[in-house]
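One such given next:

>
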Amino acid sequence: MAKNDRYVVKHGKDWAVKKGGVKRPEGVYGTQGDAEKAAKSTVGKSGGGEVRIQGRDGKWRDSDTVPPGKDPFPPRDKKH
C-alpha cells in the first residue's frame, strides 16, 4: 500500500474516502460517485497512486491508477 492510495468504502448510508491504516475518513459523501471523484482528486494532487472502490456487498469492485502513479498491471487495466 502506497502512501497516496485511497479507498472508497460504505459508511452507513453514505460513502467515505479513507486512507489505509487510518480509522477516520477523510471525507463522507452522499453518493459513491462523489466519493470516487474526491478520492481521485486527492490522489492526483498528492502525486498519483491507486483508488480502490468497494461495492455495496463489501467486495472490491474496481481499482484505478491515478497519474502520475505507476500501474502495477498495465496490460490488464484496459477499462480506463
User: Anything to note?
Assistant: The helical segments are 32-45. The CA atoms of residues 29 and 52 lie 16 Å apart.
